[in-house]
Amino acid sequence: MQQGGPSSPSCSSTSDCFLLNHLRTAECGSETSAEAEKHEVRANNSPRDPSRMRSIMLFYICYLLCLSLGLACVVCVCVWSRQWRGGFAWDGSALQFNWHPVLMVTGLVVVYGIGAVLYRVPLTWGQNKLPWKLLHAALMLIALVLSIVGLLAVFDFHNTNHTPNLYSLHSWIGIAATALFAIQWVVGVAGFLLPCSPTSLRKLLKPVHVWMGGSILLLSIIACISGINEKLFFVLKGTANGTQPYAKLPPEALLGNSLGVLIVAFGLVVLKILSNHKWQRPDSRPQDMAYTPLLQEENE
Fold first, then answer.
1. CATH number of 53-279
2. Which one of 11, 41, 212, 269 is most buried, by most CB atoms within 10 A?
3. CA distance 103 to 151
4. Residue 107's CB: how many other CB atoms inside 10 A?
5. What's the pLDDT score for residue 238?
6. Residues 208, 209, 211, 213: what is their CA dihedral angle, to the nearest 10 degrees?
């Protein structure tokens, strides 16, 4: 009479038994290696990992540089408009035109660029994404409103002084950047913030949204640089108004050229942050690669 208990598979020959034991060993080995790989991935994702900490430090250096360059751009364009162009007004005079460079640089470049890199800030990765989506949309809306007011300032100035609108390459690029920005914002809100937006649509829109964001920033930088150069050519003619010609590089020309360099530097830093895959927000990962908020203890 046989005793009950777990039965083991029978072997018809010694070679069969050897093959079965070999397969069992291989299965155990693969499970062990998978566990080891899993622990290795977790270790590599640890906030205390040296390479990861270096990446975090490099990000914050670039981020602080981005903020510093953005502030320098705003200060520089305000000083130019105030110190050399006479200040600000809204009366159809040249003082009204001065709002145009200030608002376009501040809105279409600086606020736009800071809003674009918001998702890359590591301290936001371990938190609910919805508040950061709302902040991103709010910053972009502020940038869009500033840009539209800046356009209204120059159009009203031109109309009051009977100056043609949209005749220069600078104006074409600026209008194109602002129009694409408006479309981008509306589509972004509809696709990523409305609850009725399907997940499939969001997955389809995301790469287009990212690409369009970088393209709009490039167009904005080109528009600002061409506008600065155009303005300097107009006002620095060396005529009876007492100004030196642009070719002699007077202090106002130095300031205007420096502003252009700062805008380019700001744009390059923003594009560097956006293009680095290591600084992308880890929206979804397998359970064995679950993200732990940076500089915080693991919750497991």
1. 1.20.120.1770
2. 269
3. 9
4. 23
5. 76
6. 160
Is the distance from CB of 285 to CB of 125 less than 8 angstroms? no
Taking a C-beta distance cutoff of 8 angstroms, is the pair 102, 231 a contact? no
Among residues 215, 226, 236, 234, the alpha carbon closest in space to that of 263 is found at 226
Residue 285 to residue 288: CA distance in whole angstroms: 8
Give the relative orientation of helices 251-275 and 199-235 as an angle to the nearest 10 degrees: 170
Instruction: Give the SS3 label for residue 198.
Output: coil
Q: Which residue has the tokens 């390479």?
A: 51
Q: Give the integer Cα–Cα distance in Å for 175 and 164.
A: 15
pLDDT tens column, 45-103: 445 678 888 888 999 999 999 999 999 999 999 999 999 999 999 999 999 999 999 99
Tokens 């929206």 belong to residue: 283
Domain boundaries, the chain: 53-279
What would the two tokens of residue 63 be?
A: 């981020």
End-to-end CA distance of the chain: 51
Inter-axis angle of helices 169-192 and 199-235, nearest 10: 160
Average pLDDT (112-138) is 91
